[in-house]
UniProtKB/TrEMBL annotation:
It comes from Fervidicola ferrireducens. Its EC number is 3.4.24.-. Keywords: Hydrolase. The keyword Chaperone does not apply. Coiled coil: none annotated. This is Murein DD-endopeptidase MepM. Pfam families: Peptidase_M23 (PF01551).
Amino acid sequence: MWWRREPDPYSQYYASSDERSINRFVNLQKVMIALAILCVMLFLKKIDLPQTSAIITRVHRAITYEMDLAKFLDGIKNQKFIRDIPALKSVFEKETSSLPSRGFIPPLTGKVTSGFGRRFHPLLKVERMHNGIDIEELEGTPVKAAASGTVIQAAEDAELGRLVKIRHEGDVVTVYAHLKDVYVKTGDRVSQGQIIGTVGKTGLAENPHLHFEIWEKGMAQDPEKWLEISEKP
């Protein structure tokens, strides 16, 4: 085990139980609507008429061009109330456990103090998506490249502070933020395990930590799943 997860110190700021109930109800409504559309489609397919065939073709075209099925399924499986349904829980657990190793290594050792997903930002005071994980470590601790690749950005951001973005094979990008020092520049080729900077608290950060993200084909991924991190201490 490389990291261990610690309780989120900002959990008291999360949405109230009433707000979570409302969000859960809205999400359930969306799922029910999708299931209703599916049932209608299955019914229409049994009626072999030109009119029904035209309807099915139009719906199929809309789904094909306007919906990314992978994104839809990823969004569904990240809804806790969906994952808690007994009939679906084992399916998602099997899917997660069968994820192939991507060959990435952790950028440093430390405690994961904030995971991937929606959260209430402690400084901005708004609830929004947290596209990565926060790994707490002492300021100045070396940060390594998770995989070999090319630096596509080494800059400073008002929110993320000093950051490095590295592009890897397979249209994958890793992001290392709130750095104190940056040892690479845009265009540099880096090797897996190479030190690219140090832990800091630049940008919107109260304490020294590394904010680490993984993006694949433009979609934010949960780094703990990619690196097969155990949530148990």
